[in-house]
Amino acid sequence: MSNGTSDADLVDSHDDIDDEGEAGSVEDAHTLTKSKFLGMSTGVYNIGQGCVSCLDHDEHYILTFPNGYGRSILTVPWVELGGECNINCSKTGYSANIISHTKPF
C-alpha cells in the first residue's frame, strides 16, 4: 500500500495530517490494560484488538498487542515488549503469529 493516509490525534502542535485525497486505510483499536507487580518489575497486559482496513482491497486485518514490562523499577528503569501478537485477515487467509521474547534475568 503506497498511497495511504492516516488520521490520528497529535500530541505536538505540528500539523502533520495530510487531508488531500481519499484515505487508503483506516485504523481502529481498543485495548484494556491489566497491570501486575512482578517483583522488581511491573507487567502491563494489553487485552483487546485493533483493525487495519485496506479500503482499496476491502481487506480487514485484525491484530492483537504485545505486553509491556517496566524492568528495574527501583534502580535504572527500562521498558520492553514481550508476548504473542496475532495478525489475521479473513478475506485473504493471511495470518502471522509474532512472539517477542523478553530479556532473561
Quick summary:
The protein is 0% helix and 51% strand. It is mostly beta strands and 105 residues long. The protein has one domain (25-100).
Report on this structure.
By secondary structure, this protein is mainly β. It has one domain. Helices cover 0% and strands 51% of the residues. It has strands at residues 25-37, 42-54, 59-63, 67-71, 78-89, 95-100. The radius of gyration is 17 Å and the shape is elongated.
Compile the SSE list and pairings:
Blueprint: E1 25-37, E2 42-54, E3 59-63, E4 67-71, E5 78-89, E6 95-100
Antiparallel strand pairs: 1-2, 2-3, 2-4, 3-5, 4-5, 5-6
Distance between the termini: 40 Å
Biggest β-sheet: count, sense, barrel? 6 strands, antiparallel
The coarse silhouette is elongated
**Helix and strand succession?**
EEEEEE
Contiguous runs where pLDDT drops below 50 for at least 5 residues: 1-21
SS elements, strand count: 6
Strand content: over 45%
Number of helices: 0
Oligomer: single chain
Radius of gyration: 17 Å
Quote the average pLDDT: 80
Key descriptive features of the protein:
105 residues; disordered N terminus; elongated; mainly beta; 6 strands; 6-stranded antiparallel beta sheet
